[in-house]
Amino acid sequence: MTIRPSTPPPPGSQQSGNKAEPPYQARIDAYRGIPVFRIARPRERNMGWRSFNPSVRSRFESLLDRFEPDLVHAHCVQQLTASAV
């Protein structure tokens, strides 16, 4: 898995995690000094109806194993699917 610091997107691009390339790549941002980990999701038909995604699960587990956080706040579970929760 590749983890790289976030860089500003080029003009005209979208910052949405589901448009990042390549799919399932993790990136790290920060909010007020707190690390924010993002997992890119590919665009899929009916992706909002997908309950589980093994690729998200493996990336999420890798992040947990690598950083061993004491607390996790999961946001946008509809995109990450229940696999991350």
Walk me through this protein's architecture.
- The structure is a single chain.
- With 85 residues, the chain is of the alpha+beta class.
- The radius of gyration is 13 Å and the shape is globular.
- The protein contains two helices and three strands.
- About 13% of the residues have low confidence.
- The chain starts with a strand and ends in a 5-residue tail after the last helix.
Produce a short descriptive summary:
With 85 residues, the chain is of the alpha+beta class.
What does the largest sheet look like?
3 strands, mixed
Summarize the helix and strand pattern as letters: EEEHH
Overall shape: it is globular
Low-confidence stretches: 8-18
Please give the share of residues in helix: 10-25%
End-to-end Cα distance: 20 Å
- Output the structural class: alpha+beta
- Based on DSSP secondary structure assignment, what is the total number of beta strands? 3
